[in-house]
Amino acid sequence: INQVTKRPHGIPRYSLEYSGGNFGFNRGGIDLNTPFGGSERFAFRLIGTYESSGSFSDFQSHQKWLIAPTF
Fold first, then answer.
1. Which of 11, 37, 42, 62 is paired with 70 by a 20 to 30 Å CA distance?
2. pLDDT by residue (tens digit) across 4-63?
């Protein structure tokens, strides 16, 4: 298992994304990074995603949520 963490850093950065596709596929994501009180030493990062999709088969669909705060 390879795990790569996204660490907060002292530079403010904000990202918003969206994808859509067949069978009602929707995915949205947000990535917020901000330092505390103007200090580059302490920062907060929040990553969140949502995904929902249908299927070509009847009665099949899924929804996924992810919220990952980092200090």
1. 62
2. 677 788 888 999 999 998 888 999 999 999 988 777 778 889 999 999 998 878 888 889
Q: What is the pTM of this model?
A: 0.72
Residue with tokens 């505390």: 36
* Per-residue b or e along 31-61, where b marks 16 or more CB atoms closer than 10 Å to that residue's CB: bbbebeeeeeeebebebeeeeebeeeeeeee
**15-24, pLDDT tens digit by residue?**
999 999 888 8
DSSP type of residue 59: T
Q: Which of 28, 20, 32, 31 is nearest to 64 (CA)?
A: 28
Q: Are 32 and 43 in contact (CB under 8 A)?
A: no
